[in-house]
Design goal:
GO terms for molecular function: acyl-CoA oxidase activity; FAD binding; fatty acid binding. The chain is α+β, with helices and mostly antiparallel strands. The chain has 23 helices and eleven strands. The chain starts with 9 loop residues before the first helix and ends with a helix. Bound molecules: ligand LUOH5OJ7 and flavin-adenine dinucleotide. Ligand LUOH5OJ7 binds next to helix 5, helix 7, helix 9, helix 11 and helix 13.
Length: about 675
């Protein structure tokens, strides 16, 4: 392990004895190889040993403005540290932007995140070679700091409804940016409130009197020296949020603000000097930055879930409560089957989500390379899968984080447990980058189209032709995956049947679509779950795993896919063939038995499994999850930091309480 303290809680010590698998092998697997693990550890030592990057007081005790300033101080210091990083600049940046190392230093949202996660990718994906030459070096060198300004007060989801206009003026060869109403104000962009001086702004492009739809524009917002907003720019911060409070989300309005023609990002579509509009090969190419972020969000959510699971698992092995055997010592709460039922599925999910996210990342890179060469064939599959996995990982992730919090009882509710921050981060991902319901409906659109037209990309091939495979109960992993596949196909067919029923009643297609939404969303979710379980099962077939690691990963895989099946059992009732064959009851009995057996088999390995995530205490940032298990002392030390404990009697006693006590009301 990275850190060994002199104290080690005896229960945790016992949990760590006789580990049947090599923890380092799993660490290497998650890092992407032995060398990558070594690089990561070196980088962690480099960053986490810097005293200036540590918080003087917990962030929760700072004001809104001080939180931002403190986070910005550390973010800027981190950027300076990039120069001398032992791992090299780009890997360090990646590690910092990911939720692991970065969040050990930057606790509640990074004021420079949008610059790297959206602004630079938007320049790369939407700018011409000349535009990239002009802006990218400046952006990499942090001479300019940007954000991605798309969402408005009135519209976030419906991009065609955005109101900000960019009207081309051929006389001056400029675009005039305008916010025609209050609801046209940009609202939400991260880092916009106080940090960024540039933005990629999405606006409705007007030229020759015609609206050509939303397009990306490179816009300077603040003076590069004074940081004052430029004339015609109305800008500010939107205030405290459920989480991510050190990221200065902002608002932005334009009052006839002029930019040169060449600040329309023109990789996919152009406006010529005379105002002639040149169309893109696909109108959705201007949405590409969102696709990139949906892909990385899956990784981010998984990293956060690993933290929550580690904290809850270690704590559950330290915590002793109640009575299991009458008269015996109070057991570790982890020994209750009910607690295992809470924690082992999210533990398994960290592996399932990571493997699916890796798969998506590979698809993204291949599709993106092809798009650069003008080949858009993979775009629909990439859009469908990135929507599906972003929605699934963030929604299941947020639920699992909340279960982890609950599994820590009262102490899980403390801010210092780090659950509120982790939850704030993960649940935000349910909304940003496409609200999940909206993304499920995008996925459903792709599924319905594939099933009807019998053509589609790799992730939806199972919808083409007749399904094959056993129709009876089959307890092998393959058998269970087949059940998922039949459910997914069945739910798409049910949704299509609903659409057709409405059609026969004379409903217009858009009404029929709205009236089938419940079925469509179920179909999309079943599709996403199928993809995740297939990725998990298939990745165990390949790879150079030792027998003990393969065994424990197979147990986790089986547990996870049975867990989901039982959780989502209601969906089987939608698929008629299961009811007819009375499969549902049989499935239930067999699976529940197996599930319970797996809980017992994985329980003794839980601490060793979370240890193999190799998350340092600074990254977990929680007295409940620390490696040494010294939970109670650490909770006490955290309480000592409260400003209310800095004097025995607080001044408010004299101001308010004493007069009340003396008032004889
Ligand atoms: C050295 C540099 C290193 C960089 C290092 C970076 C490394 C990073 C590593 C780790 C980082 C981890 C850290 C991550 C943490 C993240 C930090 C927090 C950041 C927070 C960011 C949040 C930002 C935002 O929220 S930005 C705003 C996002 N907004 C949205 O997502 C809006 C959602 N709405 C839409 O997308 C659309 O409006 C719509 C899709 C819902 C509907 O659009 P539409 O009406 O135009 O389309 P239709 O429904 O009519 O469909 C038509 C047709 O188009 C297809 N389609 C739709 N979208 C797409 C697409 N995107 N791509 C391809 N095709 C698309 C659709 O399928 C239809 O096809 P048909 O064939 O059926 O016609
Ligand atoms: C933490 C955070 C950071 C963000 N950062 C950025 C940023 O950097 N840049 C940026 O531009 N934006 C950013 N956003 C904005 C974000 O992308 C939007 O909030 C998000 O896309 C949802 O859009 P909305 O707010 O308009 O929700 P709405 O669309 O108004 O959603 C409200 C409800 O309506 C439902 N709904 C809407 N349309 C449909 C439909 N067609 N069918 C069925 N139901 C529907 C939704 O499911 C939801 O339940 C951020 C948001 C958050 C929370």
């Amino acid at each position: 392990m990275s850190q060994k303290e002199t104290y080690e809680n005896p229960d945790l010590k016992k949990e760590r004895q006789n580990c049947p698998f090599n923890k380092e092998e799993i660490t290497n697997l998650l890092d992407g190889g032995k060398e990558k693990t070594a690089e990561r550890k070196q980088l962690e030592n480099y960053i986490l040993s810097d005293e200036q990057l540590k918080d003087a007081v917990p962030m929760e005790y700072l004001s809104h403005a001080d939180k931002y300033a403190e986070e910005l101080r550390k973010a800027c210091l981190l950027m300076h540290k990039l120069e001398n990083s032992p791992a090299g600049q780009v890997p360090t940046l990646r590690a910092l932007m990911g939720a692991g190392l970065g969040s050990a230093v930057l606790k509640e949202g990074n004021p420079l995140a949008l610059h790297y996660v959206m602004f630079i990718p938007a320049l790369m994906g939407q700018g011409t070679i000349d535009q990239q030459a002009k802006w990218l070096a400046k952006a990499y060198n942090l001479n300019i700091i940007g954000t991605y300004a798309q969402t408005e007060l009135g519209h976030g989801t419906f991009l065609r409804g955005l109101e900000t206009t960019a009207t081309y003026d051929p006389n001056t060869q400029e675009f005039v940016l305008e916010s025609p109403s209050l609801t046209a104000y940009k609202w939400w962009p991260g880092s916009l409130g106080k940090t960024a001086n540039y933005a990629v702004v999405m606006a409705q492009l007007y030229t020759k009197g015609k609206c050509e739809g939303t397009h990306p524009f490179m816009v300077q917002l603040r003076d590069e020296e004074t940081h004052e907003p430029l004339p015609g720019i109305v800008i500010g911060e939107i205030g405290p949020k459920l989480g991510m409070n050190t990221n200065d989300n902002g608002y932005l309005g334009f009052e006839k603000f002029r930019i040169p023609r060449d600040q329309l990002l023109m990789k996919h579509s152009q406006v010529l000097e005379d105002g002639t509009y040149v169309k893109p090969t696909n109108s959705k190419l201007s949405y590409a930055t969102m696709v990139f972020v949906r892909v990385v969000v899956c990784q981010d959510v998984t990293t956060n879930l690993r933290k929550a699971v580690t904290i809850a698992t270690r704590y559950s092995c330290v915590r002793r409560q109640s009575e299991l055997k009458p008269g015996d010592r109070e057991p570790q709460v982890m020994d209750y089957q009910a607690q295992q039922n809470k924690l082992l599925p999210p533990l398994a999910a960290t592996f399932a989500f990571q493997l699916a996210s890796d798969h998506l990342w590979n698809l993204y890179n291949t599709a993106n390379n092809n798009i650069e060469q003008g080949d858009l064939e993979l775009l629909p599959d990439l859009h469908g899968l990135s929507c599906a996995l972003k929605a699934l990982c963030s929604s299941e992730g947020a639920n699992f984080v909340e279960v982890c919090r609950q599994s820590c009882g009262g102490h899980g509710y403390m801010a210092c447990s780090n659950f509120p921050r982790i939850y704030g981060q993960v649940t935000a991902a349910e909304t940003y980058e496409g609200e999940n319901t909206v993304l499920w409906l995008q996925v459903a659109r792709y599924l319905v189209k594939t099933r009807k037209e019998q053509t589609g990309g790799l992730s939806v091939k199972y919808l083409i032709g007749e399904e094959k495979g056993p129709k009876t109960v089959d307890t092998t992993l393959e058998g269970i995956v087949h059940l998922y596949r039949r459910t997914a196909v069945g739910l798409v067919d049910v949704a299509i049947a609903e659409l057709e029923k409405s059609g026969r009643k004379g409903e217009a297609p858009h009404d029929a679509w709205n009236h089938a939404a419940v079925y469509l969303i179920k179909a999309a979710q079943a599709h996403a779950r199928l993809f995740v379980v297939e990725s998990f099962v298939n990745s165990l077939k390949v790879g150079n795993l030792s027998a003990p690691v393969r065994t424990v990963l197979s147990q986790l895989c089986e547990l996870f896919i049975i867990y989901w099946l039982l959780e989502r059992s209601g969906e089987l009732f939608f698929v008629r063939q299961f009811i007819k064959k009375r499969l549902v009851t049989v499935e239930f009995q067999v699976r529940t038995l197996l599930y319970v057996k797996l809980l017992a088999a994985i329980r003794p390995q839980a601490v060793n499994l979370v240890d193999s995530f190799d998350l340092r205490d600074e990254i977990l940032a929680s007295p409940l999850g620390c490696w040494d298990g010294n939970v109670y002392q650490r909770l006490f030390d955290e309480a000592a930091k409260s400003p209310l404990n800095q004097s025995s009697v607080h001044e408010s006693f004299h101001k308010y309480l004493k007069p009340l006590l003396k008032s004889n009301l």
